[in-house]
């Protein structure tokens, strides 16, 4: 069994290597594009965690390897066949992302609005609008934060407990929505930073955007609140320049891995008054820490394994995604009681943990399996690939800038969001709607005034970052 798990880890490594080689050859001349950004986010959530998980499992006690009940139940029920099936479906999904993107490009070439003969588009973000919006969001967050306790320490501890779903912390409409929107403001603050970066002289708007991003990262009380802005920034710079700088990954890799492994325990030590020195003793060994960090990062892989192992349902044929959208409308509106069936995330939560636990989705591969069985990766891959082709068509007509690169990376992340969870419950949510409405209000897209109508020079070597040789 241990040998099979190591082979599964090698399979994820081979998939990641294959995608990297394909992207290197595909983008050698044209440069990094939206599809590359999407696939990098997929690899971070699927392949890299898969390598770590299956490399660590053979060397630790599987009775309680992570200390998280849901994870431990899934790992205890895991078998080599399920691990291989999830790996195969993941590879199938990636293949049809490429197919969907290619078919989408072919379909869009026949549309008039995609033609090279048209003037290029300029995307600009109103720096004043986005900064005032972030300041308003900060005031809302601070108001909610102020009501969580009597001292600064108690408020922050209660904020951590609120995020963890502690029943002793009263969940009101104010603190629930303010907390949910904190990550929205954090994402938008990265767009504000890149917008201010292109401002001549930069000055206080650039400093204000950085300070706001740091505050929202702290008030989000989660590891991803720090991890995602760094990933966003790196991908935005890479998209702007058309190439990746691997030395940056090497410099940031070790601190980020340590943060992913021990960040949750550090936050818990603040909330519960646990000595920080005891954090490292929560794991059986350093392999246990690797497994825990990989499980949190590759949540969708772990949940997918749990779905194939522990959920035995008839094919869903996509009904769960329709219900995810329909349930955004509150019951009782206009006097109608819709009596929606139980959400799939509650079904999976009951199977993986218990009925009272916070939502635990079925994972992207698990939801594909629930929807259409072996044809799930085909349909989902084509669906995501077409979305990428639409985003790419707009980006190809856009004059390259830092602010447009940041905006398109954020849009690509919203597209890839269901890959992290396998459920559109988290895509049709208040924080995502807030981001989209903010971009609509702050972004302006207009044709660029040019004398000739030749091809848009979007793939020429970009200027270096300020301070970069």
Write a concise keyword list for the protein shown above.
19 helices, disordered C terminus, 2 strands, 469 residues, mainly alpha, two-stranded antiparallel sheet
Question: How is this structure best described in words?
Answer:
The protein has 469 residues and is mainly alpha-helical. The chain has helices at residues 2-26, 34-45, 47-56, 69-77, 80-109, 127-146, 152-163, 173-197, 204-219, 223-241, 246-272, 286-297, 299-310, 319-326, 344-352, 364-372, 376-396, 402-421, 430-442; strands spanning 121-125, 443-447. The chain is 66% helix and 2% strand. The protein has a two-stranded antiparallel ribbon. It has 19 helices and two strands. The longest helix has 30 residues, at 80-109.
Strand content: under 5%
Which runs of at least 5 residues are low in confidence (pLDDT < 50)?
Answer: 451-469
What is the share of helical residues?
55-70%
Helix/strand order = HHHHHEHHHHHHHHHHHHHHE
Q: End-to-end span in angstroms?
A: 51 Å
Largest sheet: 2 strands, antiparallel
Number of helices: 19
Taking all Cα atoms into account, the compactness measure Rg is 23 Å
**Order of strands across the biggest sheet?**
1-2
The assigned structural class equals mainly alpha
Instruction: Find the count of extended strands (DSSP E, 2+ residues).
Output: 2
Shape: globular
The residue-averaged pLDDT reads: 84
